[in-house]
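seq:
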Amino acid sequence: MLTVEKLESGYGESAVLRGVTLQVRPGQVVCLLGRNGTGKSTFVKSVMGVLKARGGTVSYGGRDLTRQAPGERARSGIGYVPQGREIFGQLSVRENILIGLEAARGKRRGDDIPPAAVERFPVLPTMYGRRGGDLSGGQQQQLAFARVLAAEPELLLLDEPCEGIQPSIVDDIRDVIRSIKSDGRTAILLVEQSLEFVRSVADYVYILEKGSIAWQGELEALDDETVRRYLTV
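struct:
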């Protein structure tokens, strides 16, 4: 599904990613771990095209997307929930979700919100008239999920979905990821700091260290020694 080979990226004169190779297969939940500053968000931005790759390739479904714009990647079937959520604060909840339909690749148009976009977040339809900026952090995260699910993506890129939100919403997000996983139709690449959360949802793990993959393996192989070596602060 998603194949990233020898990806290099960074900001200005600073190189952040150094030859990162990673794969996400259909139906998998793959987690990218690493200490702060190792390049996790840079990697997701580079996969989505928000940040231009300096080297390597990004392929999805056998198609080379390395030089494609973010909108084209979204229309190819990749959904992206960025760190910080990036909700349109002045737009209503309903309008925010409808924006997600722009990536629906012609499958759905008009002003109808797909039921699948909000069925996992039953509180959102009760808030359709509220401004996105008036929601709590947890509610905004739910809205960001619903917005990206409106386009029915086949791959989700989730960058720190549990950052700065209350434990009850973290539990809801865990349930949503598990539900998506059980459906088997959508793969997920997850960037997350909470090892407990990762252990509850992931199938396969990559660990970034200084912009390169330092370890990878099935979740069951992520032992205490590996955690101490690459993740403990």
